[in-house]
Every structure is written in C-alpha cells, then in structure tokens.
Amino acid sequence: MLRIVSLREHVAGVLHRAGALKAVMHIRRFAPVPARITILTYHHIADDDPTYPYDPGVADATPAQFRRQMELLARYGTPIGIDDLVRAFDGATLPKNPVMVTFDDGYRSCHDVALPILRAVGMRATFFIATGYVTNRKLYWWERIAIILAQARVASATLTYPQSIEIVANDPRAQAILADYIKDTPSLDLERFLIGVSTAFGVEWNSAIEATHADNLVMSWDHVRALSRAGMDIESHTKTHRVLLTLGDDDLRDELAGSRQELETQLGRPVRAIAYPVGRRVSHRIRLRRAIEAAGYRLGLSNASGSTRLWPASMRGMVPADRYDLRRLSTERTMSDAMYFTQVAVPRLAYIGRHDRG
Length: 358
Ligand SMILES: [Zn+2]
What we know:
TIM Barrel, two-stranded parallel ribbon, about 45% helix
C-alpha cells in the first residue's frame, strides 16, 4: 500500500508541476457533459497532536491544509449544495465543475475550526449529523473504544459478548477488531458491547464521564444551528451510526426516519439526504433501499471512492445515475496538496478507499 501511495504522490507531483491538473479542470469547465459531481468527505479538522487522547485516525486535515483545499475548490469548482443536487437528479442542469464539501458525524471541529475557514474562503458545506450523539451527549462508538483502550487498567481482557474474544489493549489492531464487531454483527446490542469492553479493561464509564468526552468532541444542537444559520446544509447520518445492513427492520426505520425527524424538529427545515454510516454502499440492497426511500430521503451518499457522472435528463435512460449511490473522495493529513488536487481532477487516481471508516 505504501508503495502505491508514494507512487501516486509522485505522479501527482509531476502532474501538478506540469500544470496538467489546471488544464483538466479548465477543459472540464468547457465540456460540461456529463456533469462530474465531485464530493469531498471530511470528519474532523485538527492539527497532529501527540497528546490527543481520542482516535488519531479520524482527522482528515489540519486547519492550514483544509484552508488550502477550500481555496483550491473555490478556484477550480463551483460549490453546490443539497438543493442543487436534488434538482439535478430531477432534471435541472448543474453549474460547471460542481464540487461539494461534506462532513460526516458532527465533530465539534466542524463548528469551531471548519466553519470560520469556510466563511473566510466563501465556501459552503453539507454536514451529515448522527443525531443521537448530539441529543444524548454520547461519544461515538469508535472514539469510546479508543479512549477505553488508551485508559485500559489491564494488558489484555476477554470479552464474552457477542462471543468470547481476547483483546490485547496495546495491540495496534485492537481498535479495528472491536470496531469490526460493531460494523459486522447483525442486531448487536451496542451499549451492552461497549460496557463489556470498559468493564473488561477496568475502565470506569458512566453517563457523566461520557458527556464530558462528548462535550470535547461532539457538536451541540446550538453548534449545528449556527452552521445552518451560516448557510450550510444539515442532513442525516442516522441516529447512532450503525451499519444499515446490520439493523433489523424496526431499528432501520427508527435510525432513518428518527434522525430525519429529529433534524427537522431541531432546525425547522427539510432534510433530504443521508450519508451512510461507515460509508458502505447500500443502494443495491433492496430492503435497505426501500427503507431509505420510505424514510423520505432523496439522495444517499457512500464513501466508495470516486465522483458521480450525471448525464442530461434526456440521456439518462442510456446512462442512468443512482441518486442513492453517490460516490465521494476522502483525504487524510498525510496527503499532499498535489495529490488532493489530483484526485479532484482525476478521481480514478484517488488512493483512499475509506469506505469502512466513520
Ligand atoms: Zn460517520
């Protein structure tokens, strides 16, 4: 993987210095058919801090990187919102080089760090909120795992739910192994599982401790409303961020319709789109697709890497685009500006398939 990354970074540097990426964006501006919808995914904006107690793998960019990335998108693209995308799938024309910036989960840095930068650069973004964490002041399950492993009072522990599992706290794979149980186990009792982890590792956990962590990392509804007042779009990321495929019909309905209702109640405006938790594509799964449509969503976004091409309405019979299968591009702090620009200009060169994270 490292070799692929460094090779792509090298190619990106060459393309950037040669001016090829600018040329691609200019050509695309004059050949707008099909529209290529470029959507970028973010979660958390923060500098790399060795004392940071939470999941170090979540931050996608430093504040300085994020600003440069927004300036680049503003220079070569036309920022669009959810309204533009819904109208485009209903037949309207998109502006040239449509770009969309999206944030998943609802990290507090969306309000404290990203919003001032978006405003300063004149960019807009769409924020997909996992409503249950905001309302109940709870910590995201992957962050809770990170904290528990970091504070573990014993070197290893055996969990008994959902099956017998031995976990070594300082094993670099421990976080991913525990997260995979949440991502892959049908109808897992999430709270029971997480309490099992903290108990097994001797880490004290209660709602007061959790609320303190949530206040450090998760936006409040006041923060979310401030984003909305600033002209940003606010959409759904379900209630408790569970992989849709692992949910039974009742839980699925509650996660989809419940989060939409909560958002519309808190914000007083319609919610039309959903970003799928953990980014896994779902539109090919009939049960899930029907539940998403029944909950009133008009658009669905995964983290499958790439961009989405949208042909004019008259040609969609031949080249259909799936409104519930929008692709996105991810980034990370180790990515160079040249590589960031490369994946926007030539999406197939993107090397992050982050379709299994947050
Ligand atoms: Zn997420």
